[in-house]
Design a protein that fits this description.
Its EC number is 1.14.11.17. By secondary structure, the protein is of the alpha+beta class. The protein is built from six helices and 18 strands.
């Protein structure tokens, strides 16, 4: 069965999470259609669009119609000088995402959302999965929700990108939030993030960038984070996408985490991503 929001045809992937948008040409969509996409993104959290014909120019143009674009990445430069907003994930240059993460949570203002398109795909493998952090929070037991509502976590980009910034970029990264990134100072975010548009709570920790919980012992921090990661990535909280040429995925970075399978050996996989400028996360106690 297909649901309809305004003039969008949505094929839901689950009861609450994920949908394929059917029959929409993103490069020719009207302002009203893209406003409906934006609303559906908040509601369904991750959207998929088949059969698109976008290049880097069209991807940037689409992003600018949906919001304010960031640089490609705080540390990694754009795909070329003409497209500083486009982040190339190339398997020949360590462009993997095979750890659960939410994009760029190691900055004070992580992206609102991301738009990813398939450029080069292996013959098989390379699927991407998304986890719904709001469903993850809602399905925790009440006492656990009360605990995590009070907690703050540290996110550290040095874990993944410190070496790249120092060695590949000579200590000078991109312009992010109006300043050149020259170091990756750890930042603190609430463990439970309140979505600024819906008020819903979601888990906002991830194995890729979260280093520890503030104000508890190392053992307690590891135990809490392991519990949350295992719970967040339960199958009932996940949708999985098998990529085809022409596919575009769009997700709300404030309410999801994702993981790309690295199961295609030496085959070549290239994805191009842009991100929309976000706001500073706040929690239930803010």
């Amino acid at each position: 069965m297909t649901d309809t929001i305004v003039n969008l045809a949505l094929d839901p992937l689950g009861p609450h999470f994920g949908a394929e948008v059917v029959g929409l040409d993103l490069d020719r969509a009207s302002d009203e259609e893209l406003a409906a996409v934006r609303a559906a993104l908040v509601d369904r959290k991750v959207l998929f669009f088949r059969g698109q014909d976008l290049d880097d120019d069209a991807q940037v143009r689409l992003g600018r119609r949906l919001g304010e674009l960031t640089a490609s990445h705080p540390v990694v430069g754009g795909v070329d000088e003409a497209h500083p907003e486009v982040y190339a994930l190339d398997s020949t240059d360590n462009g993997f995402a095979d750890v659960w993460h939410t994009d760029v949570t190691f900055m004070p203002r992580p992206p609102l959302g991301s738009i990813l398109r398939a450029v080069t795909l292996p013959d098989g493998g390379g699927d991407t999965s998304w986890a719904d952090s709001q469903l993850g929070y809602d399905s925790l037991a009440g006492p656990v929700r009360q605990l995590v509502d009070q907690l703050t976590a540290v996110h550290d980009g040095n874990r993944e990108f410190g070496y790249y910034l120092a060695q590949r970029r000579g200590g000078r990264g991109s312009v992010w939030d109006g300043a050149v990134v020259t170091r990756l100072d750890p930042v603190e975010h609430p463990v439970v993030r309140v979505h600024p548009e819906t008020g819903r709570k979601g888990l906002f920790v991830n194995p890729g960038f979260t280093s520890h919980i503030v104000g508890v012992s190392d053992a307690e921090s590891r135990a809490i984070l392991d519990l949350l990661y295992a719970h967040l990535t339960k199958p009932e909280h996940i949708v999985r996408h098998r990529w085809r040429t022409g596919d575009v995925a769009m997700w709300d970075n404030r309410s999801t985490a994702h993981y790309a399978n690295r199961d295609y050996g030496t085959a070549h996989r290239v994805m191009h991503r842009i991100t929309l400028r976000g706001d500073r996360p706040y929690g239930p106690s803010d």
